[in-house]
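Might I ask for a little of your time on a matter of protein folding? The record follows directly beneath this note:
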Amino acid sequence: MPSSFRPIEFCRTRSAPCSSAQSGVPLPPHEVCCYYANFRYQAASWKTPPRMVAKIKWHPGELYPRVSCIVTNLSRPPENIVAFYNRHGTCEQWIKEGKGWGLLHAGLSCRLFSADAVGLQLHALAHNLGNFLRTPQHPCRSRTGR
């Protein structure tokens, strides 16, 4: 992140609810404040400066905002870029979870697509059943512990 980009200063200039009128010092908000910033940043070894999108999210009770940066070459609005990359990350998490439980290496090599689909559904059902049974107290038990 470039040294000239300061998230707290950015929040102060963008929002009245997140700053004190008397001192101008940003205060933790009473509600979640979310802002987006665009800027270009070029490292010494890069030929051209790529576009950087920063998401600044300040939660109530937190002293400093949470800042996340994305380096991209997309020309969409910053909100859409953050949403796009968040969906991509969610998909990556699903793939990682599937690999961890052996869902993707289940030997789905049947000749028919429908047979592979049924096999994958059975593996997913087994995965979900295992997660359900690992919970400390599931809904089938009464509150008395019987």
